[in-house]
UniProtKB/TrEMBL annotation:
Lineage, top ranks: Bacteria, Pseudomonadati, Bacteroidota, Flavobacteriia, Flavobacteriales
SMART domains reported in the protein's UniProt record: HATPase_c, HisKA, REC
Signal peptide span: none
Annotated keywords: Kinase, Membrane, Phosphoprotein, Transferase, Transmembrane, Transmembrane helix, Two-component regulatory system
Catalysed transformations (reactions): ATP + protein L-histidine = ADP + protein N-phospho-L-histidine
Annotated protein name in UniProt: histidine kinase
Residues that span the membrane, as ranges: 16-38, 44-60, 67-88, 94-111, 116-134, 154-178
Species of provenance: Polaribacter glomeratus
Record-level Gene Ontology MF annotations: phosphorelay sensor kinase activity
Entries under CDD domains matching the protein: HATPase_EvgS-ArcB-TorS-like, HisKA, REC_hyHK_CKI1_RcsC-like
InterPro entries given in the database record: CheY-like_superfamily, HATPase_C_sf, HATPase_dom, His_kinase_dom, HisK_dim/P_dom, HisK_dim/P_sf, Sig_transdc_His_kin-like_C, Sig_transdc_resp-reg_receiver
Length: 561
């Protein structure tokens, strides 16, 4: 491979070296003429010879062979300044041209890939300047020209040339910097526009998918609570499991998108890990039964209540367990949570998901943490999945200040495990949280605002089952009118509706009723939507699809007093 292919250069650099080579070539020609006029014939011959070489450097640069032209150019430039300064003497101040040659390598070499050349040629200029001073400018000759001639004629020329070259260099840097940052600004704007377009697309898709999904999950709850026949139970469980699986898949895609652009924020609340582990088991039991494998729990009964973002923690466990079930055809999947140590205010837990599945080869154990990557090309075809579960696990655990590790043997199963240090929740805080879960909605009036008739039907059934008095509005304008005419204890407000959306309806309600709790029913999980919800005067939000427990606990929270 040629040196030019090893060190590719830009068109900008080729043009720069072409122009500088011709410019310094002209300066060498002028120096040669002056040298002959002063009787310095040897110096004149040297400068005339370098003119030809500078033209050759310009030729190389124009043809894209800048690697050779730059090295040749800097050797000639430094030797030219040194020899001229030596023949002219200290009085001529030719050495000030080294200011130009010291800075020039930073312009024509890449500091990222050619740092060695930058240092070498800058240090070479400095070394030659110091050597001239040490030898009293007698490096090449002991008989410099007359001091009076040097002071009268050469000194002004040297100062003007050095000043012109340095100022030209600074102007070039300024122009180059302006163009560079202008391009960066344009690229930044394009990236922001692309990001906004992506967010808008994901926001729209999130809303369009979550809205019917809310009805699927809600209806499965209602059907399950209405004493179904024994032959219907499995169908209802399958419906519920399919809805939750689709929701988990959707959440993974959206979470991965959000994690690319912003940091994850944890919402730590008092949590009973044992109880939540039991709930996680219920979610995955149907899939295990279908495959004929066991789902085991090994939970330490002595684990205290802790402060934990249970949503994110459950997301980690759900992804790990889903993966384990997916790749296990016989045997079992086991969730282990045990206490390693406990101090006064903190407890350290060991969390592990192990299976007896197909295992992961050691050479593949690093790449599975990368997005959209699976163990082999046939994995997706045989087992499905997006390849986002483990990258999301990795991101969440990083925020929790821990790291997942893996031990796996082909055809013998895998172990994914991590240690987690958590703050112990105080007993009185736990009591308040538990007390808040006891619902008492006697006489509570709710205005449910939603334009989707299926969601209205599902929501109304869930609410009326808990003895809430429910009134319906199908758009924001009707909601505003109803709040004016009737007294409600809480408003459940959809965001995207015809005629008047939830934001505008809330602003109108706040003009005459600043106190009524208004909760957004949003199928959009993006941060900009949360910000708009806060700004328009809403008190909180419930993401679709929601479980009856989520909905009722939020209503209880805002109507308790």
């Amino acid at each position: 491979m040629s040196e030019d292919k090893k060190h590719p250069t830009s068109r900008r650099l080729n043009k720069l070296m072409y122009a500088i080579s011709l410019l310094i070539g002209c300066l060498a020609l002028f120096s040669g003429i002056v040298s002959f006029l002063l009787g310095l014939n040897n110096l004149g011959y040297y400068h005339f010879a370098t003119v030809i070489i500078y033209i050759y450097c310009a030729y190389l640069s124009k043809n894209g062979r800048t690697y050779y032209s730059r090295i040749l150019f800097f050797i000639l430039l430094n030797l030219g300044i040194t020899s001229t300064a030596s023949f002219i003497g200290r009085a001529g101040s030719v050495e000030y041209m080294f200011i130009f040659s010291l800075a020039l390598p930073f312009s024509v070499f890449s500091f990222r890939t050619e740092k060695l050349y930058v240092y070498f040629f800058s240090l070479l200029s400095g070394f030659l300047w110091i050597t001239l001073a040490i030898t009293d400018f007698k490096l090449f000759t002991d008989t410099p020209i007359d001091i009076v001639i040097a002071n009268t004629y050469i000194y002004p020329i040297s100062i003007i040339c050095a000043f012109t070259m340095v100022v030209t260099q600074l102007i070039y840097f300024s122009i180059l910097g302006t163009k560079y940052y202008s391009k960066i600004h344009i690229k930044k704007q394009e990236a922001l526009e692309a990001s906004l377009a992506k967010s808008k697309f994901l926001s729209t898709m999130s809303h369009e998918i979550r809205t019917p999904l809310n009805a699927v999950i809600g209806l499965s709850h209602i059907l399950g609570d209405n004493e179904p026949r024994e032959d219907q139970i499995k169908n209802i469980e399958a419906l519920s499991y399919s809805g939750k699986t689709l929701l988990n898949l959707l959440n993974n895609v959206l979470d991965f998108s959000k994690m690319q652009f912003s940091a994850i924020e944890l919402d730590n609340i008092p949590t009973n890990i044992n109880a939540d582990a039991q709930q996680i088991k219920k979610i995955h039991e149907a899939a295990c039964l279908k495959k004929g494998i066991l789902l085991k729990l090994e939970i330490d009964d002595t684990i205290p209540y802790v402060y934990l973002d249970i949503i994110r923690f459950s997301q980690v466990l759900n992804n790990l367990i889903s993966n384990a079930i997916k790749f296990t055809d016989k045997g079992s999947v086991t969730l282990i949570i045990k206490k390693i140590r406990q101090r006064k205010d903190f407890v350290t837990l060991h969390v592990e998901v192990k299976d007896t599945g197909i295992g992961i080869p050691k050479v593949k154990q690093k790449i599975i943490w990368e997005a959209f990557t699976q163990e082999s090309n046939t994995t997706n075809r045989l087992y499905g999945g997006t390849g986002l579960g483990l990258p999301i696990v990795k991101s969440i655990l990083n925020v929790m200040k821990t790291k997942a590790r893996i031990r796996s043997v082909n055809d013998q199963g895998s172990r994914f495990y991590f240690n987690l240090k958590l703050k112990i929740a105080k007993y009185n805080t736990i009591e308040k949280e538990i007390e808040a879960e006891k619902f008492n909605f006697t006489g509570i009036k709710v205005l449910l605002v939603d334009d989707n008739l299926i969601n209205v039907m599902v929501g109304k059934q869930i609410l009326e089952k808990e003895k809430l008095i429910v009134s319906i509005a199908n758009d924001g304008l009707i909601a505003v009118q109803k709040v004016k005419e009737e007294n409600f204890d809480i408003v459940l407000m959809d965001i995207q509706m015809p005629i008047m959306d939830g934001y505008k309806a809330t602003k109108e309600i706040r003009k005459f009723n600043p106190n009524i709790p208004i909760l957004a029913l949003s199928a959009n999980v993006f941060m900009e939507v949360k910000d708009k919800i806060d700004k328009c005067g809403m008190n909180g939000f419930i993401f679709k699809p929601f479980t009856p427990e989520d909905l009722l606990s939020q209503i209880e929270k805002f109507t308790r007093n």
